[in-house]
Specification:
80 residues; alpha+beta; 2 helices; elongated
């Protein structure tokens, strides 16, 4: 962490089908997470594709990446 910076670090949370990588992963720190399946199972979107947004954040905070690389006390999540 840089004590002279308001921003400790930046991580892109990339939610894609079958965790398919993209070319931006080489350009910025990225955590690749999977999308929910379609349907009505426990890990399905129940017809609401926007469920992938909170599902991606759940995968982030449960990940090894979170435990090992996110050291900030506060985290800002922004959707684009």
């Amino acid at each position: 962490l840089d004590p002279c910076s308001d921003l400790g670090s930046f991580t892109r949370l990339f939610n894609s089908p079958q965790k398919a990588p993209d070319t931006l992963m080489e350009e910025m720190p990225t955590l690749l997470v999977s999308q929910l399946d379609h349907g009505r199972c426990k890990e399905c979107d129940h017809g609401f594709i926007v469920m992938n947004r909170p599902w991606g954040v759940v995968q982030l905070v449960e990940s090894e990446y979170w435990r090992e690389r996110i050291g900030e006390e506060y985290v800002l999540v922004i959707e684009t």
